[in-house]
């Protein structure tokens, strides 16, 4: 068995060696100096969880799974969006060294003109991570956030998204639904996730996936059951769960209230018996003065609209399932909203298990928060974290991608909160360069073969040390009486070597 040369990480020794003019080699980085980001994630416990995902491997390929998971996490943070585009990262010696690969192996692979690993190695690794293992890592991440008190507020919402794929035959576990607008079947997956409605601290705490034709209510129950199995009873985190129309169902709401102990806020579908009953009771109670609230909304184009809301509460409604065997007691909040500019009016009824006698307007506020935070979560995952672009065709790979993206999104948000100046500096650089990646800048790995040591540093630091080395060598040659033109030629040649 050949001897594996091991180099020691010694930043001070590398600086000393370069100042003394000892031979050194440099591996430049395209993805930059990211110690402050990666180290922060490591310090807070995120990176350990990301590295811990275990693939179901029948035959070891000699590459530590921690390193492969580190590449998977870095790929997600880089927001490249596709393993097919990962070659620049896999050929980045500085980054791959930071992710735990042996420095000599990195150096040899790069000298041979190859990536440190092939992208197929990463692709095969990700698709071999079982769904149960992705869940285990994700909910360990949720437990970490809970133990560090990074989850704030007890009001949560459930939301879903669809991931469309090109073919139902080549993507494992996908389903199909008829799209009436396109007049064709659409293939893919449905994802449901649970997130809190704290405006400043949105976090994803539960996630489930199924075929695109799956019932989102079933997926929500699965997500809550996983939260209970891996972290704690959902009611220990969630006080109120805000749902849209798609989650309506008397039996379903009864289960959320009975099995999980959650209070519910949802919007009522028109045409339901309970909807008509609430409207009738409001009409009979016109003598009671409604709550008046003024509200402003700003759309995506920055246009502001002003509304007047008249809010009335109705208590003690009973909803029955179609068979009339399951019932749940609900209260209603009826809202009449008028656009102050156009005069356009609309009526909406919200249903809840909460007491509405004291503050019925709060129920409406919960639903308003759902829309704003939902857009942030949905849009961020879709547009910035590329979850609608499957990383592979196996369900295991797609779910691992969803879990890793959700964990990274949570971690980046916490990083922004704890390191606002560093985060703003990094994101300003992202905007300047036109990138969405959290892997930016230029960096270097500097190796001193004579001492068998190496260090990582900013590229400008390496250039400064190189300039100091050149100046020292030039002064040494001049003191030997060598003409300056010849000195410059010698030093230039030595720098190239």
Structure, explained:
With 497 residues, this protein is α+β, with helices and mostly antiparallel strands. It has 3 domains: 31-147 and 391-441, no CATH class; 150-390, Transposase Inhibitor Protein From Tn5, Chain A, domain 1 (Alpha-Beta Complex), CATH 3.90.350.10; 457-496. The chain is 44% helix and 22% strand. It contains 17 helices and 14 strands. The chain has helices at residues 11-19, 35-44, 46-51, 65-78, 87-90, 93-98, 103-111, 119-127, 131-147, 216-230, 250-258, 273-284, 360-384, 395-418, 420-433, 459-479, 484-496; strands at 8-9, 25-29, 155-165, 175-179, 184-196, 204-211, 240-243, 263-267, 291-298, 304-320, 327-339, 345-352, 443-448, 453-458. Strands 3, 4, 5, 6, 7, 8, 9, 10, 11 and 12 form a 10-stranded mixed beta sheet that branches. Strands 1-14-13-2 form a 4-stranded mixed beta sheet. α4 packs across α14. The chain is elongated, with a radius of gyration of 29 Å.
């Amino acid at each position: 068995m050949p001897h594996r040369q091991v180099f020691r990480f010694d930043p001070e020794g590398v600086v000393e060696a370069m100042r003394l003019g000892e031979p050194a080699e440099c591996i430049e980085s395209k993805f930059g100096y990211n110690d402050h980001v990666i180290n922060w994630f490591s310090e807070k416990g995120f990176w350990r969880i990301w590295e811990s995902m275990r693939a179901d491997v029948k035959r070891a390929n000699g590459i530590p799974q921690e390193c492969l998971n580190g590449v998977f996490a870095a790929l997600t943070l880089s927001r490249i969006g596709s393993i097919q585009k990962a070659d620049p990262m896999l050929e980045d010696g500085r980054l791959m060294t930071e992710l735990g690969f042996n420095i000599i192996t990195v150096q040899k692979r790069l000298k041979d003109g190859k990536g440190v690993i092939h992208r197929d190695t990463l692709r095969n690794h990700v698709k071999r991570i079982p769904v149960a293992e992705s869940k285990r890592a994700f909910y360990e991440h949720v437990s970490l956030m809970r133990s560090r008190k990074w989850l704030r507020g007890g009001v949560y919402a459930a939301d879903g998204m669809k991931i469309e794929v090109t073919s139902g035959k080549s993507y494992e576990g996908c389903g199909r639904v008829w799209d009436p607008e396109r007049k064709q079947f659409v293939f893919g997956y449905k994802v449901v996730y649970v997130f809190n409605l704290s405006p400043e601290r949105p976090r994803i705490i539960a996630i489930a996936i199924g075929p695109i034709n799956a019932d989102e209510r079933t997926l929500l129950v699965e997500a809550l059951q996983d939260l209970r199995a891996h972290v704690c009873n959902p009611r220990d985190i969630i006080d109120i769960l805000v749902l849209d129309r798609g989650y309506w169902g008397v039996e379903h709401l009864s289960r959320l209230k009975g099995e999980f102990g959650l209070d519910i806020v949802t919007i009522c579908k028109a045409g339901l018996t309970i909807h008509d009953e609430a409207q009738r009771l409001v009409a009979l109670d016109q003598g009671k003065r409604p709550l008046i609230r003024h509200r402003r909304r700003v759309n995506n184009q920055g246009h502001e609209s002003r509304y007047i809301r008249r809010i009335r509460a109705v208590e003690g409604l009973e909803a029955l399932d179609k068979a009339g065997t399951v019932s749940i007691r609900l209260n209603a909040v009826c809202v009449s909203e008028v656009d102050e500019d156009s005069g356009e009016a609309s009526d909406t009824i919200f249903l809840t298990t909460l007491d509405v006698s004291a503050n019925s307007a709060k129920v409406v506020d919960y639903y308003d928060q759902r829309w704003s935070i939902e857009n942030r979560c949905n849009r961020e995952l879709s547009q910035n974290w590329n979850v609608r672009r499957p990383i592979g065709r196996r369900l295991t790979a797609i779910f691992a991608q969803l879990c890793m993206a959700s964990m990274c999104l949570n971690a980046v948000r916490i990083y922004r909160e704890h390191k606002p100046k560093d985060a703003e500096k990094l994101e300003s650089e992202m905007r300047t360069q036109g990138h969405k990646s959290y892997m930016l800048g230029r960096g270097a790995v500097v190796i001193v073969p004579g001492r068998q040591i190496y260090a990582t540093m900013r590229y400008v630091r390496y250039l400064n040390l190189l300039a100091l080395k050149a100046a020292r060598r030039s002064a040494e040659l001049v003191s030997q009486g060598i003409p300056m033109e010849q000195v410059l030629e010698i030093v230039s040649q030595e720098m190239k070597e």
